[in-house]
Amino acid sequence: MLEDHAKVMMLLQTVGEIIGRKKLQKIVFILQKLNYPFQEKFQFHFYGPYSEELTLKIEELCNLSFISEVKENKGGYHQYRYQLTGEGEVFLKNYDIHMPELRACAETLDGESSRFLELVSTLLYFDDLSEQAVVEKVKIVKQRQHYRDEEIHRGLGYVQQLKSKALWC
């Protein structure tokens, strides 16, 4: 019944902690695009792909005390830290979810900045377009982020590496 919730918990168990709501959203979206079995529906939003379903799952998991959400004041904005709790560890033992290479992939993604993951997830969101069309789309929809050409090209290279799994295999 809560298998999709357990997948999110497994992600947190694997990386230990994810700092930032946006980062958590982007990591799950990217993993989904890499054919990991996350089922959340994503729509394009101000910060790139966003899932209301994922937000609700996180809220439910916090209410069940399976994950902890720590809110930190960072002088003008709030940052959230997510970790699996002891209760979550016990609950997760009820599930046998197979996600090969999740650790290496998730840790690689978690090691990147939220800004970069926002770019990468946006590139992946529009990956049905040609590379030139994707670059043009990013420059339009991410105009406020002022991504430089070098950042976009690094993002495109990173997407190709992710797709080939060259980063962790």
Task: Tell me, rounded to a whole number, the average pLDDT.
Answer: 93
Strand runs, count: 5
How would you sum up the major sheet? 3 strands, antiparallel
- Give me the secondary-structure category: alpha+beta
User: How many DSSP helices?
Assistant: 8
- Spans of at least 5 consecutive residues whose pLDDT stays below 50 are none
| % residues in beta strands | 5-15%
Helix proportion of residues, in percent? 55-70%
Spatial arrangement of strands, main beta sheet: 1-5-4
**CA(first)-CA(last) distance:** 32 Å
Overall domain count? 1
Which shape, going by the Cα principal axes? globular
Could you give the order of the helices and strands?
A: HEHEEHEEHHHHH
Whole-angstrom Rg: 16 Å
Structure, explained:
By secondary structure, the chain is an alpha+beta fold. It has one domain. 55% of the residues lie in helices and 13% in strands. It has helices spanning 3-15, 21-33, 52-63, 86-92, 102-110, 114-125, 131-141, 149-164, and strands at 18-19, 43-45, 48-50, 67-73, 78-84. α1 packs across α4 (86-92). The longest helix is centred in the last third of the chain and has 16 residues, at 149-164. It is globular, with a radius of gyration of 16 Å. The termini are far apart.
